[in-house]
Amino acid sequence: MAQEFDEIRSRLETIAEELADLAIVRLRESIDAGGQELPVDERRLTRARRAVEKAIHLLSEPDESVF
Q1: Phi/psi at 26 (nearest 5 deg)?
Q2: Which of 1, 7, 12, 23 could form a disulfide with 45 if both were Cys (CB 3.0 to 4.6 A apart)?
Q3: Which candidate, 28, 27, 21, 20, places its Cα nearest to that of 53?
Q4: For residues 20 and 12, what is the distance between their CA atoms, to the nearest angstrom?
Q5: Residue 14: CA atoms inside 13 Å, Cβ hemisphere, count?
Q6: Pairwise CA distance, residues 14 & 2, whole Å
Q7: What global pTM score does this model have?
Q8: Residue scoring higher pLDDT (50 or 35)
């Protein structure tokens, strides 16, 4: 089971990086366009990245069901 979690965690880490990169792109685009506020997309992407990071953390914890 641990190996399955490792594989999923690895994919989630990649997704978290992709979300972070996309959020940075949105911020740069907003700055280049003279924007004064954070783009809505960036906020959603950041929230999604944080949720994925929470999942990564949960999959990193030891299995509590072991007796």
Answers
A1: -60, -40
A2: 23
A3: 20
A4: 12
A5: 5
A6: 18
A7: 0.80
A8: 50
Region 42-59: what's the mean pLDDT? Answer: 95
Provide the token pair at 66.
Answer: 């072991």
Q: How far is CA 10 from the centre of its chain?
A: 12
Q: Retrieve residue 4's tokens.
A: 């399955």
Question: At residue 62, what are phi and psi to the nearest 5 degrees?
Answer: -65, 155
Rounded-to-integer distance, Cα 58 and Cα 40, Å: 27
Q: What is the mean pLDDT of the chain?
A: 88
Helix (H/G/I), strand (E/B), else coil: 37: coil
Residue whose token pair is 């990649």? 14
> What is the band of 42 on the pLDDT scale with cuts at 50, 70, 90?
confident
What are the C-alpha distances in Å from 10 to residues 4, 13, 45, 62?
10, 5, 19, 16
